[in-house]
Amino acid sequence: MSRCLSNTLPSWIVIRPIAADVWRYPYLWYRQHSGGETEGRKKRPVAFVAVLPGKTGGTNLFILAITSTQPGRDRIAVAIPEIECRRAGLDPIPLWVIVDEYNHDILESSAYFESGARIGAFSPSFHKKVMAAFIAVVRKGQSKAIPRAD
Known about the structure:
Blueprint: E1 21-25, H1 30-34, E2 44-53, E3 59-67, E4 77-80, H2 82-88, E5 95-98, E6 101-106, E7 118-121, H3 124-139, E8 144-147
Parallel strand pairs: 6-8
Antiparallel strand pairs: 1-2, 1-7, 2-3, 3-5, 3-6, 4-5
């Protein structure tokens, strides 16, 4: 066979994200949400920090933005090591996972999630570091949630 079709899946197959995955998603920043915007301006790499079943059904997605803009001193972020960039299919440039805000979406009813937008995944050890930073921010009440579910 001259062409590799291993990455081609039928359109009816839905690939579900798992924690540590990196996908493209139209992330809505808190500053945009506060300004009345309801749509992310562009699809960007994001990290799924947690993927949890909901109490009333559905799958809760807790989504963190990945950015190449160095976060200011007022932001809380985790720098992504170059090896993790390669593992996750990201460009080998300085990148950060922002942990002081997140998008919350429901997989089954999302108007934004696309099942074919997976880029890669972080290693379990790096995901644990991101998760610990996220949990610490949430516990301190410094986290800003942006609801994306309708």
